[in-house]
Amino acid sequence: xxxxxxxxxxxxxxxxxxxxxxxxxxxxxxxxxxxxxxxxxxxxxxxxxxxxxxxxxxxxxxxxxxxxxxxxxxxxxxxxxxxxxxxxxxxxxxxxxxxxxxxxxxxxxxxxxxxxxxxxxxxxxxxxxxxxxxxxxxxxxxxxxxxxxxxxxxxxxxxxxxxxxxxxxxxxxxxxxxxxxxxxxxxxxxxxxxxxxxxxxxxxxxxxxxxxxxxxxxxxxxxxxxxxxxxxxxxxxxxxxxxxxxxxxxxxxxxxxxxxxxxxxxxxxxxxxxxxxxxxxxxxxxxxxxxxxxxxxxxxxxxxxxxxxxxxxxxxxxxxxxxxxxxxxxxxxxxxxxxxxxxxxxxxxxxxxxxxxxxxxxxxxxxxxxxxxxxxxxxxxxxxxxxxxxxxxxxxxxxxxxxxxxxxxxxxxxxxxxxxxxxxxxxxxxxx
Length: 432
Hints:
Elements: H1 2-35, H2 40-68, H3 70-88, H4 94-122, H5 128-148, H6 159-170, H7 172-176, H8 193-199, H9 201-227, H10 232-259, H11 262-283, H12 298-311, H13 314-323, H14 331-360, H15 364-386, H16 406-409, H17 425-429
């Protein structure tokens, strides 16, 4: 573990700054949209721009990295992300913000791909699991810290936008000063959608629906909390709980899935998330009342934590379940295909959820989550009736951050081996 941190500290530090800015930005834009009186539908449309950009970027980034290299790509798109957030504070309009979110999505997927392919180059068979664990902790931890920066200044001021730009720009410093030569980028093969569905119908369908859930959850939670009269500090707390709960829940849920039929764990987890989402609606009945009349939010926090525990490990569960039905050599290609389906679902999530909220009120946010979690659960029950479980010794649960790219999936210790890096006198001197 110490060797991992020693050799990759600059990359981890840079990604920490990026995720801190990302966590802050998501909450800030959601709250500001409500304060600017954007309609819920306009807010959902605007927030969906990020996932449209993420999807576009995922398809184009391999060619860009191959042409100009990792460091230039990281510098260019981190600079673009830093620039784009400043424009949000100058031009305030849902359509303009949609375009800016699209550019942010393209920038972020490029940054993730560069970082994760770089980490793959630093990894060996002995430390791949450690590298992925440290990377995931940094991503979730920095995101959670960023969400508390919402208290820095009023979202209606321009200072929060400047702070996000400063933090994003700071991420460039350790990366650009590295003496380590960047890796040679290799393109990841992707299984066709038909191949993925034939291998695991539950994996394919669940990945699509879960993309819809995740995109709405992370982009509209701050909007929901603002509409329910949460204070800025309370919004920070609830968004922080989402990020941290998801990271903590990965390992116990994953352990259960390695012991029991993974489909049962998926079904119980998704229905558990739906039930706890229902409980949050029940305890939130009077939270929207003015100060002094509103009920305590303690039970809301408790049920929301339990919801996050059940919901956020789902993509890792879906990936592990899909791997149960394919050969080890296809694990990375299958993960890339599932990410493609996840992205397709994610593009529509915020917009669809905003329609739910527009029709039935603020708690339409959780009704939306209940609906799509239940779809995954019922389809899982159906698949358990028509197909026997398979014991694949090469497949096991590996905790993955929600933002993982195909390059990051290669850090999964169960994928095809990575050759041990050759130790040369020059390599010893070239450390990040």
